[in-house]
Amino acid sequence: MSFSPEQPRHSSIAPHNGHMPSCGQKIGRRELLAGAAGSLALAGCSLHNPNAPKPLVSITRATAYTQDLYDTVRRIFAEHRLEVRGKRVLVKPNLVEFDAGVPINTHPLVVNAVYDALLALGAKVRIAEGPGHRRNTLELAEAAGFFDIVPRFEDAFTDLNLDDVAKMRLRHPESRLASLFMPRTALQADLIVSVPKMKTHHWVGATLGMKNFFGLVPGGVYGWPKNVLHWAGITECIVDLHRMFPNTFTLVDGITGMQGNGPIQGQAKEAGVIVAGADAVAVDATCCRIMGIDPERVVYLTLAANARQTEDARVQVIGERIAAVRSDFDLPPSFGWLRLRR
Amino acid sequence: MELAHSSDISGILASQNRDGGWGYHEGASWTEPTVYALLAQLAAGSREDHIARGLAWIARSQRSDGGWAPLPFVVDESTWVTILAALLLAQQPGVAGLSKAVPWILSQSGRESTLANRIRVFLLGLHPDMDRRFIGWPWFPGTAAWTAPTALAILALRKIDRLQPNADVRGRIDDGRAYLIDRMCQDGGWNQGSPRNLGYEATSYAETTGLVLLALHDMPAQGLEKSLACAERHLAHCRSAEGASWLRLGLLAHGRMAPGTELPRRTVMERSLFVLAAAASEGRNVFLS
Question: What's the complex ipTM?
Answer without folding.
Answer: 0.94
